[in-house]
Design brief:
Elements: H1 2-22, H2 24-45, H3 53-67, H4 75-92, H5 105-121
Helix pairs in contact: 1-2, 2-3, 2-5, 3-4, 3-5, 4-5
């Protein structure tokens, strides 16, 4: 287990440092890809399936937060619209496959908003 972590670090750290050194669009693209992968992983751990429209909404809004980090003009709009739409989606969408197994609209909303803020904002 330790050997796998050391090998991952030996490969990963130079890649990360290269993107940081490059800066600009290359770094922003790298961070966007990492954010998308992190959001998908978070929502899958929360119980959303890959067929869930809520998962895609959360991933897109997380990505929008990451991409708007340098723009103070768009950030409040993205936060506000993400909160409002994430509250409305679990109510509007029909209950069915792809949604978490736990009952309750509030629980869907909490996981969705929590994932958006955890991955996209932090």
């Amino acid at each position: 287990m330790l050997a796998q972590r050391v090998i991952s670090a030996l490969v990963g750290i130079p890649i990360i440092l290269a993107f940081i050194w490059m800066g600009g669009l290359g770094f922003q693209l790298f961070i966007a890809i990492v954010a998308v992968l992190g959001a998908v992983e978070f929502f899958q751990m929360a119980g959303f399936s890959l067929r869930s429209p809520l998962l895609y909404f959360g991933v897109i809004w997380s990505l929008l937060l990451v991409l708007s980090a340098g723009s103070a003009q768009w950030f409040p709009l993205i936060i506000t619209s993400g909160v409002m739409l994430s509250l409305a989606l679990p109510i509007i969408l029909p209950k069915g496959p792809g949604l978490p197994k736990e009952p309750g609209v509030l629980l869907y909303w909490l996981w969705l908003l929590g994932g958006i803020m955890y991955v996209g904002w932090l």
